[in-house]
Every structure is written in structure tokens, then in C-alpha cells.
Amino acid sequence: MESKIRAKAAVLGNNIDTDVILPGKYLILVDPYDLAQHALAGLDEHFVDKAKGGIIIVGGKNFGCGSSREQAPLALKYSGVKCVIAESFARIFYRNSINIGLPVIECKGIHDAVKEGDELAVDLEAGKVQNLTTKNTFEATKLPPSIMEILTDGGLIENLRKRMNKK
């Protein structure tokens, strides 16, 4: 995972909960690629097709609220989501996303400034989001080196394996 991400935007609203991100009936699936086939199924039946080439989700406030299912960010990541930018996140979704290697950043004012299909460039370390379509730049939360290391390693488990092998 690189600290700079570029892709088209898929814009969602406020209070996108984990039941919408991955409906409960799919929790019996264990393969992340199978989960990905049902990402946002209840909200946008064409989401999986849109995400295949790689997209950045732009959400409003309280993204990822609801139950603490780790499968929700897994479904997004394996469907082709490169990053989620939102006004704010539910804390458990934010942490689960980092743990599985899906970059998430908070950026005030982003939701109303991005339209579906806008080309975005995100610099996770600098905390910058550029809307290349409108030429606007936004300040986002900078991800600290420890979180960047987890993301670069592909998630917390891989990060821990790497650290343990150094000893």
C-alpha cells in the first residue's frame, strides 16, 4: 500500500452503517473475495461493478456506525475500495479498517465538495485530499507513522508477523 492513492469517487451519505456496508445475511461467508461480491448490496446493486477498477469512497458523518463486524471493511477492501474518506467515522469501523489494511481518513467538508465520479488524489501521510476534477484541495487527518506502517504491511496481523520476524 502506498501513501498516495488516486481513483474516482463513489459518494455515499451520512450514517452508513455496517449493515448497509455488508448485510448480515452474508456474514456466513469467510473468503474476503466472496464478501466483496456483496459490498453495499442493499444500497447500490451496481457498487461491485463500479469498485472493480479501484475507487475511493467519500462518506458523510458517522461512516461505519452499527455493529462491530470486521467483515464490513473487508468487503469494501476486496471489492476494490482503495480508501474511505469521511467527515467522521464510528470508532470501531475506523480501527477495524486500519487492522485489515484499508486506509481511512477524516476530512471535514469533503462530502459536499465531491461529486460521484470526481477524480481524487489522497496523500495519507501529508493529510491532503485533492479533487483533481474541481482543482480543490482539502486538509485531512494525517495518519501517524505507526498507522502508515500497519497499512503498508497490509494490516495489523501482517505488521505483527513482520515485527516478530525481526527479533
Short key terms for the protein model shown above:
Aconitase, domain 4, 167 residues, single chain, 7 helices, alpha/beta
Q: Could you state the CATH homologous superfamily?
A: Aconitase, domain 4
Number of helices: 7
Mean of residue pLDDT values? 94
Trace the largest sheet across and list its strands.
4-3-2-1-5-6-7
Q: Major beta sheet, specifics?
A: 7 strands, mixed
Helix content: 25-40%
CATH fold-level assignment: Aconitase, domain 4
Radius of gyration, CA atoms, in whole angstroms: 15 Å
Separation of the first and last Cα atoms: 24 Å
Unreliably modeled segments:
none
Structural class: alpha/beta
Order of helices and strands: EHHHEHEHEEEEHH
What is the overall silhouette? Answer: globular
- Strands, count: 7
The number of domains: 1
Share in β-strands: 15-25%
CATH class: Alpha Beta
Examine the secondary-structure arrangement and name the CATH architecture.
Alpha-Beta Barrel
General description of the model:
31% of the residues lie in helices and 21% in strands. With 167 residues, it is α/β, with parallel strands linked by helices. The protein has one domain (4-165): Aconitase, domain 4. It has a 7-stranded mixed sheet. Helix 4 (71-79) crosses helix 5 (91-100). The longest helix has 10 residues, at 91-100. It is globular and about 45 Å long. The model has no long low-confidence stretch (mean pLDDT 94).
